[in-house]
Design goal:
The chain has three helices and ten strands, in the order E-E-H-E-E-E-H-E-H-E-E-E-E. By secondary structure, it is an alpha+beta fold. The protein has a domain of 73 residues. The strands form four sheets. It has a three-stranded antiparallel sheet, covered by helices on one side. It has a three-stranded antiparallel sheet with strand order 3-4-5. The longest helix has 8 residues. The radius of gyration is 17 Å and the shape is elongated.
Length: 115
């Protein structure tokens, strides 16, 4: 999930994450994580606090004002590191492009699958 602010409306967080906020806490499927009343009654969420409470990893790009959160893994962190594996794919001209050539720069890899 990408956000443009460290503080987001509850409705936007629910829409992007699939979590819903109920009196018993933040719920997704059969799982509910208790949250304090002040969080549940607020119209906005502080990403740093809510991602920590839900066990979501979070990355911040201060230069561009972008915040990335998720995916969740109840009981453990799904994103242990931001290091990408070795990846070499053809570029637009068919020449091999090694993702490692961008080392030291922030890179977002977007993947899509039709299944």
């Amino acid at each position: 999930m990408l956000f443009k602010s460290a503080s987001v409306p509850v409705a936007e967080f629910e829409e992007k994450s699939g979590w819903t906020f109920k009196p018993e806490g933040a719920c997704k499927g059969d799982v509910c994580i208790p949250l304090s009343a002040d969080v549940l009654e607020s119209e906005t969420l502080e990403l740093e606090a809510i991602t920590e409470a839900l066990g979501l990893p979070m990355l911040v790009d201060e230069k561009h004002g972008l915040y990335a959160a998720g995916p969740e893994s109840i009981g453990a962190r799904a994103l242990v590191t931001a290091d990408a594996p070795s990846l070499v794919l053809p570029d637009l001209d068919g020449q091999p492009f090694d993702l490692a050539s961008l080392r030291g720069q922030k890179v977002m890899v977007y993947a899509w699958a039709p299944y």
